[in-house]
Amino acid sequence: MTNHFWLVWYRARSSVAPKHWALFMTYDTDEQAIGTAYQAQGDGFGSGQFTTAIHLAVQLKGPRGAHSYEDRLYLGTIPDSFTSNGMMKEYCDAATELINESNAARVVGESNCHNWCLLVIRGLEDAKCLKEGTWERARRCPRMG
């Protein structure tokens, strides 16, 4: 089965705040599709330390009235074998480790969900799971409110 892979971003709290980015995998391209959300989740203390959050059976658009994404970018397809063998989680965990190491070396964490998503996308592009140029398209997506 084919997995459709998306970068989604959510409305920022203000015009000077960062938008939240996440990755989303669905079997269908419809806005109402159910899939798996992958994201870097902060520790809640502003330390710049993150964990990998994977949420199953999430609706891409969200129910009416729910906090849903502002926009999305279609990144391509990922083979089902890549997700079923745990490789997707490994790529996400590796990105989380890199972000945490980078932020631990600084007084203020500079890396965030944008960097995390781009690391995962770069890894998938390097592994030939995504077409060349996907990272460049994702890098240009909006980051601030």
Detailed description of the structure:
It holds the Pfam family DUF6540. InterPro entries: DUF6540 (IPR046670). It is a single chain. By secondary structure, this protein is α+β, with helices and mostly antiparallel strands. It has one domain (2-10, 20-28, 53-139). It is built from 4 helices and 5 strands. It has helices at 80-84, 87-104, 113-126, 134-139; strands spanning 2-10, 20-26, 34-42, 50-59, 71-79. A hairpin with a 7-residue loop joins strand 3 (34-42) and strand 4. The termini are far apart.
Give the arrangement of secondary structure elements.
Elements: E1 2-10, E2 20-26, E3 34-42, E4 50-59, E5 71-79, H1 80-84, H2 87-104, H3 113-126, H4 134-139
Antiparallel strand pairs: 1-2, 1-5, 2-3, 3-4
InterPro entries: DUF6540
What are the low-pLDDT stretches, counting only 5+ consecutive residues below 50? none
Question: Level of helix content?
Answer: 25-40%
Radius of gyration: 15 Å
Quantity of strands, as a count = 5
Question: Which percent range describes the beta-strand content?
Answer: 25-35%
- Order of the strands making up the biggest sheet: 4-3-2-1-5
Q: How many H/I helical runs?
A: 4
SSE order, one letter for each helix or strand: EEEEEHHHH
The dominant shape is globular
Largest sheet report: 5 strands, antiparallel
First-to-last CA distance: 36 Å
- Structure class: alpha+beta
How many structural domains does the protein architecture include?
A: 1
Overall average pLDDT: 90
